[in-house]
Every structure is written in C-alpha cells, then in structure tokens.
Amino acid sequence: MDNQYDVIIIGGRIAGASLAMRLFQQNLRVLLIDRATFPSWPAVPSSPIIYPSAMRLLEELGFAEEEYACPEAKVTHVVMDMMGKFQATFSTELMQLDRSYIYGIDRHKFDTVLWERAASLPLVTARDNFGMTDVLKDDNGRVTGIVGRTESRTEERFQARLVVGADGRFSQAARKFGSRPFEELNDYPSASFHAEWENVGRYSETMQYPAALFQMGNGYSLLCIPLGNGKYIIANYLRTADVNAGGKKAEETYLDNLQKVPRLREQLKNARRVTPVVGVRRIDNGYRQAYGDGWALVGDAFHYESPLDGQGIYNALLASQFLADAIAEWQAGKPWLQAGATYQQRFYGSSIAMLKQTVKRVQQELYTSPPPDFVVNTLLRWMLTDPAYQQQFLRYLARAIDPTTFSFSPTPGPIMRGLWRDITGKRR
Ligand SMILES: Cc1cc2nc3c(=O)[nH]c(=O)nc-3n(C[C@H](O)[C@H](O)[C@H](O)COP(=O)(O)OP(=O)(O)OC[C@H]3O[C@@H](n4cnc5c(N)ncnc54)[C@H](O)[C@@H]3O)c2cc1C
How far apart are alpha carbons 170 and 211 in whole angstroms? Predict the structure, then answer.
C-alpha cells in the first residue's frame, strides 16, 4: 500500500534525517516529513559549534567535512576573554583527537545537506512542507500512523509500524504520544539570542577566525563564532529573567549587551547585522520518555539542554544511532517496548553526566556573582592559561573524557603551575 511504511519520522533535521539514513541501511521503508520547506533555518534558532565527536558521527553517515562545513569556519583557536581583564587562548590541537579543530556551522546549509542526502535514498520518501497534525492510534492506544497536511491544507494519512518524533525541543509528537519528562534540571533558567553579522573586524593581528567567548561575570556571556564567507554568528547567553529587564525587548537587550564588551564593540564598528535577532527565552534541560507502544522520540524531542556547551548536534546524532540500533534489535524479534527501554537507558547513561556539568556551568557563569579582581587576576588566570586545564576543558567539550572528572573551579595543579609561571616570568 502506498501510505504504509515501516517507520514514519516527524522532523527532518539532525535527528530525523540522520535516523532516516541509518534506517535505509537496514532496508526499511521510511517516510520522513518536515513542516519546513528546505532549504530553511531551524525552527528553533541555533548558533552552533561542532566538535570532533559530531564530525565522527557525520563521517560514519558518509559525509565529508567539505559537504557540510566551510573551510573558513574551521576554528583552531578559542579565546576566552575574562571580563576584559585577561585573555586565554586555547589551541584546539590540545584536544589530541583525530581532528585538531572545531567548526562553526551554518545551519541553513548544514540542515539542507542532511535533508537532501536522506531524501535522495531510494527507500526514503521525503516530504517537506508537510506537517504532522495528529497521530493515529488503534483501540489499545498503540500509535499506528499520522495525519498531516501541506500548507495548502490537503490532509493525508500514513500508517507505520513505528512513528518517531524528531520534531525538536517543543515536540508536538511527544504531546500527541503522551510522553512526559522523566527528569528535568531547571533551577537556573537561561536564554540565548543571536544574529549573524558581516564585516566583523579581526579579533587580533594574529588571529582572524578564532571563536571568542566573552565572559562578563555578571549574568551574561557572548560567543562569537565564524561561519565562513565573512559571516559570524554572535550569541548572547543570559538569565531568562534578564531578557526583558527594564522593559526592554529581547533584541534591545541583545544589542546593548554586545556594546558592553569593549573588544567586541571595536570588532563590530564597521559590521552589519544580516539576520534578525532570534533566540529562545527559556531553555529547559531534561529528558522525555523516549519510547512507547508504536512510537519513539529522538534528538531534542527526547533530550533538550542549554546550548552553553554546544552538545545538541552531537547528542541528536548519537541518539539517532542508538535508536537505529534499537530498531535493528526490534526487527530481529525483540519486543519494541524492551528495545525502546534499552535505547532510552543507553542514551540517558551516555548524556546525563554531561548535562549535569552543563547545568553547573550555567549556574557558575550566569548565576554566580563575579569573583573579586584579585581572584580573577590570579587563580582564574592561572587556571585558564594552564595548558593542562585547557586540554581538559576542550576534551570535556569534545566528549573525550568522563565529564565528572572535569572541574570549572581552580584546582591545586593549575594554581601551582600558574604561580610558577608568574614567578619565573613566563606569564602567558
Ligand atoms: C540558541 C541555541 C544554540 C545552540 N547551539 C548549539 C551549538 O553550538 N552546538 C550544538 O551542537 N547544538 C546547539 N544547539 C542545539 C541544536 O540546535 C539542537 O540540539 C538540534 O537542532 C536538535 O536537532 P533535532 O533534529 O532534534 O531538532 P530540530 O533541529 O529542532 O528540528 C526539528 C524539526 O522538526 C520539524 N517539525 C516540528 N514539528 C513538526 C510537525 N508537527 N510536523 C513536521 N515537522 C515538524 C521542524 O520544522 C524542524 O525542522 C543550540 C540550540 C539553541 C536553542
């Protein structure tokens, strides 16, 4: 039958498109839908960086880097500017991984490359401009398919043995399936707003394209990421309650915060903003139940988190790999509810420690009063300019170490080495 599939996937970006590619490898007949029309920006605005961890999973899916990233957006240095008091430059070579760099990603291009690859596969029927409006259930409450419609409102119905919600952090599929969060860590609500800029000045004489993190220490930070073709995305992370502080609109708050950083203000002197300011006012952190009778969730629909550590793309690719493994087990005869439970537990186990650390970082960077100047100029400087600390931080972001072994606070090793550098005149 024409409207019958093995798996229907709602949402065709990172989680959905990558899952379709993996299910194609299992010879499954897939319907992949998205209400957006590609090429398009993600519905939930994102200002992304990716690490070698995500590149490795993309390679596994058959992508060469030049297909999804721009050479100019290859980042080999990350500068941390600490309240204008000192700058610490982290060389990404310190990661000591298969790749010694990270990328700023243009999501418009990146998402389209993924969608088009999935759509080109013979067993995948891809329909953009087609939104799911409801799910079909049988008398026992088992999900059996979807109802959807095009922009012109023509309604269509499709059946499948499994329906997957890959429709992002505000997942409508989760609501229709009856999925609820089973763990949330929302004590420190944060927001993120960003825009793209052109003609941004060089960061310094020696560095043209570093990613620069401006830590302001009083409830907000700014991240400047090269996207290639002369474009930068500049993101402002802040506390949710501050987005409209003083009766300001989110866009005003964003532009004001950019102007408060002298070095960034200088870089933006001749720059032009080329996109509207977009963002998310309240970014929750947590997990929803990821499986049930006839359904599953993947990507942000399953696990949503603060973007401060830039883990969303990797997590979406990883969860889709784990879900594809669970579907293979189901195909081989394991009951779906058992395979789904293994999937949920496996992904939770791989991500919860990182999520807890990210939340700790949100608390420390946005909700903790700035340390006194004396501490910034000694302990913090010693820590952030210590190559061993820098290596651990980069490897933490690249998911190359157990996140619980990484500390954001100064520890004896970096302090002693920093003190020694100062004493011996090798101040960095
Ligand atoms: C401000 C911000 C900054 C971020 N920065 C980073 C970063 O630096 N690095 C990083 O790795 N991650 C980052 N992320 C996270 C990253 O963007 C997400 O983790 C990632 O996009 C999740 O992919 P996804 O495929 O699960 O969902 P999404 O990208 O949200 O895609 C969901 C898709 O589902 C479609 N859809 C929704 N409802 C329906 C429906 N009813 N019918 C049909 N289709 C539907 C939408 O149109 C959309 O195309 C950031 C996120 C935010 C909010």
Answer: 29
Alpha carbon separation from 30 to 121, 243, 315, 410 (Å, rounded): 10, 41, 22, 50
Extract the tokens encoding 77. Answer: 């240095």
Confidence of residue 217 (pLDDT cuts 50, 70, 90): confident
Query: How many other C-beta atoms are found inside a 10 Å radius of the C-beta of residue 402?
Result: 10
Residue range 110-155, pLDDT digits in tens: 999 999 999 999 999 999 999 999 999 999 999 999 999 987 778 9
CB 160 within 8 A of CB 6: yes
pLDDT at 414 over 90: no
> What is the predicted pLDDT for the residue at 315?
98
Task: Return the CATH number of 4-56+106-185+285-356, one of 3.40.50.2300, 1.10.260.40, 3.50.50.60, 3.40.190.10.
Answer: 3.50.50.60
pLDDT at 46 (0 to 100): 80
> What fold characterizes domain 70-90+190-283?
D-Amino Acid Oxidase; Chain A, domain 2 (3.30.9)
* Dist. CA 425 → ligand 1 center (Å): 48
Cis, bond preceding 39 (omega within 30 deg of 0): yes
Give 278 Cα–ligand 1 centroid separation in angstroms: 14
pLDDT digits (tens, 9 = 90+) for 230-266: 899 999 999 999 999 999 999 999 999 999 988 899 9
Whether 48 is in the pocket of ligand 1, judged by its Cβ within 6 Å, is: yes
Cα dihedral angle (76, 80, 81, 82), rounded to 10 degrees?
-170
Centroid of ligand 1 to alpha carbon of 169 (angstroms): 7
Q: What is the mean pLDDT of residues 203-224?
A: 84
What's the rounded Cα separation, in Å, for the pair 337 and 325? 14
